[in-house]
Every structure is written in C-alpha cells, then in structure tokens.
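We were asked to recover a plausible sequence for a given structure. The inputs and outputs are reproduced exactly as logged, with field labels preserved.

PROBLEM: sequence recovery
POSITIONS: 400
GIVEN STRUCTURE:
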C-alpha cells in the first residue's frame, strides 16, 4: 500500500528535476568540464541539498495551502509583489524555452534537418500533447522523454575517466580567473531556476495531491535532486575526461568532442538522445509554468484538467510562448553563449525567487508546517549564501 501510494505521488518532483537538467544545463556542464576539467565537479554534489531545500519548501507550500506560488505571493504580499515575482519567472521561462528549442534545432542540424523543420515538429508536437492531454498524461510523456537524459551516464562510462585525476582536481583549493566564477554562477543558475519553484507548486495541485502526500512528495523531490545532479556530473566528466578542452562555441563542437572519443555514429546518437530528453522535458515544464504563473496572479482558469474552451487564456499563453520561442530560434542564435548567459541570469534572479520562497514558508503556512526554529535558520543561511554566491559569480564574470 505504501509503495502504491508513493508511485501515485511520484512525478512532479522527478519531472521538474529532469527539466532542471535542460539543454542550457547540459551545455553549462559541458562548458565547465571543457574549460576547467573536474574543478567544478564537487559543486554539482554540494548543490543537491540546496536544490532539495528550495524545492521542499515549494512542495510544502503547495500541498498544505492548495495554492500556487504566484497566488500565495499575491495574497500574502499584494499584487505588485506578485507581479514582480511572476515577471521574473516569465522572463526566465522564455529564456529557458528559447534555449530548449535551440538545443533541439542543434540536434536536428547534426542530422541535416533545418531549424525551421525541427521547430515545426517540436513546437507542433508540444502543443498537441498539452492541448489534448490531462495533467497525468502530460506528466507521463515528460518522464518518458526525460529518461533519455540517462544516456549521459553511458557516455561518461565510455570515456573511461581517471578516478585519481577526478578526485585530485575536484578537491584542489585553487581559484582561477574570473571566467571560473562566471561558470560557478552559471552552474548555480542551472540548478536553482525561478520556474522550478512555480512549476512544482502548481503541479502538485493540478495532480490533486494534498497534505497527506507530503512525505511521499518529499521523497519524490529527493530522488529528483540526486538524479539531476548526477546527470550534470556525467556531462561534466564526459568533457573533462577526453573531450575538447577550451571554449565550446556551438552544439556541433560539443557533439564533435564526444564523437572524437566514441566514434561518429555512436557519439552523435548518444548526444542527440541526451539533448533531446533534456530539452523536451524542460520545454513541457517551462511552457506550462509560464501559463500557470500568469493565471495565478490574474485569477483565470489554469488547469490541464480544463478543456481549452474552458481555459482559453491558459492555453493561449502556453501556445504563444511556444510559437514565439520557435520563431526566435529560427534566427539561428548562438546556443552556447545564450545558454550560459541565461543560467547566469537565473543566478542574478535568485535573491528575488528564494526571498519570496523563504518568507512565504515563514508566513503562509499553519504553525505545524511553518518554517521555524533551527531548521528555519539553516534554510535562511543556505538560501542567502546561495544567492550571494550566484550574484557574486555572475557579476565577477560580467565585470571581472
């Protein structure tokens, strides 16, 4: 019975964490390994508890109050604060969606498929899945495509990394130039993203979960946090162990660095599968998050359980974000530079996102679930230090 209950709850945490390892995160991890070897590997594991702390608060707020993140901010701090929070989320969502679609366009071009055709297939398929499915069916699709990310574990194993070099490099206390701190900020921004907070809180509600599901939902979040950082580590190790060393400027270069080790066909196929899984699950998550978040502060119907005729604004915002992103990607922007820049932008937004999250957990929950005591102090310190480090790394890279 307990196992069946956990399997019934499983999904929102795992899906949002698989989406966390999106196209931009994969590229950031690859860039980290190519430029700095294993020096940023330890950071991937340090970020696991930080990621769980942030997302556990999101789960707690959603399951106990039954309200979305934007809705809670509006009720607790007023409409202007909610508008600020949702605006930062919407910017992050659009940036992320453009990155995901760019990743898919890059994969298509590896096989000679033009960007416009990739966008037609990917964008059209995404719209069909969401317009015709319930929350549970969309979640199942997201989990299936997200599972393709696991091929990065096979890639990391096939490059035969040196454990001795990995441990020595990862634990060496050296601080290279400003570019190193810029990638620290990008990695932090690639892990704690504004849209994740909104998505998981809305998803547990749309799935019909409530306070009795809190324990299982926390385990769902723990598993997801470990999986996403393991995937990031696998990508970093793959590039550090034997790929291209130096700046990676295009998706082709990332794929080429793996093809040089694994062979053309195998390297291209494994990279394409991994990137497809990362980009598609994140595309589902961020496009839905934008529609959910806007709906929460303006009060219109916003559930996948509603037919498009019942929730025209929800489906309209979702569709507009997909179409706009697909059109932008057709302009053939530089994916690598854009992806790292977006993750750095996420790091700069952390004080707003984590600040609202912390104060909601202090003020919007009943006493039994309120964030307080020693754990409350630990959470405050963790979120503050994460925000400070992310902002410092971003500014060091931009102005250093």
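RECOVERED SEQUENCE:
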């Amino acid at each position: 019975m307990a196992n069946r209950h956990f399997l019934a709850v499983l999904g929102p945490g795992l899906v949002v964490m698989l989406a966390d390892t999106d196209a931009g995160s994969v590229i950031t991890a690859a860039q980290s390994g190519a430029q700095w070897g294993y020096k940023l590997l330890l950071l991937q594991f340090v970020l696991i508890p930080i990621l769980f702390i942030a997302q556990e608060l999101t789960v707690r707020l959603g399951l106990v109050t039954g309200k979305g993140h934007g809705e809670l901010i509006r009720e607790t701090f007023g409409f202007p604060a909610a508008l600020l929070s949702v605006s930062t989320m919407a910017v992050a969502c659009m940036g992320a969606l453009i990155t995901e679609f760019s990743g898919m366009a890059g994969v298509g071009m590896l096989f000679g498929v033009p960007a416009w055709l990739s966008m037609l297939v990917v964008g059209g398929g995404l719209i069909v899945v969401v317009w015709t499915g319930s929350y549970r069916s969309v979640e199942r699709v997201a989990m299936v495509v997200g599972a393709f990310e696991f091929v990065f574990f096979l890639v990391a194993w096939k490059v035969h990394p040196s454990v001795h070099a990995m441990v020595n490099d990862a634990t060496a206390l050296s601080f290279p130039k400003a570019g190193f701190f810029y990638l620290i900020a990008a990695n932090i921004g690639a892990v704690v993203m504004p849209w994740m907070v909104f998505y998981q809180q809305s998803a547990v509600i749309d799935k019909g979960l409530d306070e009795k599901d809190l324990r299982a939902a926390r385990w769902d979040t723990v598993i997801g946090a470990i999986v996403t950082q393991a995937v990031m580590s696998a990508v970093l190790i793959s590039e550090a162990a034997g790929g291209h060393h130096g700046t990676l400027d295009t998706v082709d270069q990332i794929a080429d660095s793996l093809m040089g080790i694994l062979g053309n066909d195998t390297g291209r196929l494994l990279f394409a599968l991994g990137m497809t899984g990362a980009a598609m699950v994140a595309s589902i998550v961020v496009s839905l998050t934008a529609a959910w978040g806007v709906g929460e502060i303006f009060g219109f119907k916003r559930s996948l359980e509603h037919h498009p005729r019942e929730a025209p604004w929800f489906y309209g915002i979702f569709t507009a974000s997909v179409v706009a992103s697909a059109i932008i990607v057709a302009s053939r922007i530089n994916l690598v530079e854009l992806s790292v820049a977006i993750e750095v932008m996420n790091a700069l937004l952390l004080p707003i996102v984590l600040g609202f999250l912390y104060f909601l957990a202090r003020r919007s929950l009943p006493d039994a679930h309120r964030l307080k005591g020693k754990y409350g102090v630990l959470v405050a310190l963790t979120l503050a230090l994460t925000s400070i480090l992310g902002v410092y790394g971003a500014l060091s890279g931009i102005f250093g």
